[in-house]
Amino acid sequence: MAEMQVTLGNTTLRNPVVLAAGTCGVMGEIKDAINLKNIGAIITKSITQEPRIGNDPVRIATLKGGMLNAIGLANEGVDSFIKNQSTKAGALNTTVIGSIAGDCIDAYVSVANAMNSVDGIELVEVNVSCPNTSDGLEFGGCPKRLATLLTEIKQVLTNKGMIVKLSAAPGDIRPHAASAIHSGADALTLINTIPSLAIDVETKRTKISRGVGGASGAMIHPAAVRVVHDVYRDVAKDANIPIIGTGGTMHWKDAAEFILAGASAVGIGTASFVNPSIAPNIANKLTDWVARQGCRSISELVGSFSLQ
Ligand SMILES: Cc1cc2nc3c(=O)[nH]c(=O)nc-3n(C[C@H](O)[C@H](O)[C@H](O)COP(=O)(O)O)c2cc1C
Q: Which atom of ligand 1 lies at the shortest distance from residue 22's CA?
C-alpha cells in the first residue's frame, strides 16, 4: 500500500485528509458520524479571546455549486474552550489542530498561548482570512502586518507547529505566503472562503443578512487550485513548507488535483455538510490513486504538475 503520511512541522498525520476549520464541529463532533481514525486531522472551530455570538441570521445560503456563509466566528471564547473542549482533544482518534482568530495582536497571542498549553492539540492554525467579520482580513490582507502578528504568535507557540490560513481575496497572495513563511509558519492553509454576494431577485435583498459572505464548495475549487499552484511553485517549494489545499473538494479527484498543484494535504469543508462520511472515502480513493500512479509515497506526486 502506498505511503500516505504527511508531515506538518514536527507532526505527522496518518493521511493527507484534514477536516477544515468550522465545518466539523468545535472539537470534532463529526466523530459521531465518522471514525476519525480514518482521516489525517481535524481543525477546531476558530476560537477568539472573548465569546462571539456571530452575525445575525440568516447566516447560510445554499447556492448553485456551493454555499455562502457569514457565521462571523461565533464561538464560546478561549476560557470556555479550554475548560470544556480542550480536554476532549486527547481522546479523539486523530491529530487535532486548534484554530485561532482575533481582532488585535494581543487577542491572537492570548488564544495562542492558551492553545499552547493543551496536550491534545498538536498544531495551531492562525486564521487571518475570515471574510465575515469587520476585522477578519486585517492581518491577512497585508504582508507587513501579518509578519508582525505571526512573529508575536510564534514566540508563545513553544511546543506546537504554526499553520497560517490565508485568503485568496488579495488576488496575488504570494507576498503574504512569503511573509508567513519568513515569520515562522510551519505550514500554510490555502484558502478560506471567498468574499461573495448573492441577491434574491424577488425581494431584492441579499440572501444572507450580513450581505457579503464567504463562498465555499465546488464553485471555488479552481480558484483554490490556482492559488495553491502559484504559492507552491514560487514560494513554498523552495522553503520546503507544506500546504493544506482547501476549497471545494467534493470528490477524490479534487483532492488529487490539489496534490498535483503542490498541496501536501487537503482540507475538506462544505463537502462534509453534504455527506459527513466523504472525508474517509476521499482518503481511501486517494490511496488507490497514488498506487495506480506507481508511486510508493504520495509525496512523489506533490507539485508534480506545473504550468510553464
Ligand atoms: C459554515 C462554515 C464555517 C466556517 N468556519 C470557519 C472558521 O471558524 N475558521 C476558519 O478558518 N474557516 C472557517 N470556514 C472556512 C473553511 O474552513 C474552508 O476554508 C472553506 O469553507 C473552503 O473549503 P470548502 O470549500 O471545502 O468548504 C468555514 C466555512 C463554512 C462553510
A: 5
Point out the ligand 1 atom lying closest to the alpha carbon of residue 270.
27
Q: Is the CB of 167 under 6 A from ligand 1?
A: no
CATH superfamily label, 6-53+76-191+217-301: Aldolase class I (3.20.20.70)
DSSP state of 101: -
Whole-angstrom distance, CA of residue 86 vs CA of residue 155:
21
In the residue annotation, 130 being an active-site residue is answered as yes
Query: pLDDT tens across 200-221, in order?
Result: 999 999 999 999 999 999 999 9
Q: What DSSP element (H or E) covers 306? A: none
Q: Distance between CA atoms of 1 and 8, rounded to whole angstroms?
A: 22
| Protein residue with least CA distance to atom 26, ligand 1 | 269
Enumerate the domain spans of the chain. Answer: 6-53+76-191+217-301
Measured CA to CA in angstroms, residue 40 lies from 118, 238, 274 at distances of 19, 25, 20
Does the model's pTM come out above 0.90? yes
State the SS3 of 142-163.
CHHHHHHHHHHHHHHCCCCEEE
d(CA 241, CA 232): 9
143 close to ligand 1 (CB < 6 Angstrom): no
Q: Mean pLDDT of all residues in the chain?
A: 96
Kindly report the CA angle at 249 between 262 and 216, in degrees rounded to 5? Answer: 110
- Taking residues 103-111, report their average pLDDT: 96
Q: Are strands 41-43 and 17-19 parallel, antiparallel or unpaired?
A: parallel
Percentages of the chain per state (helix, strand, coil), in multiples of 5: 35, 20, 40
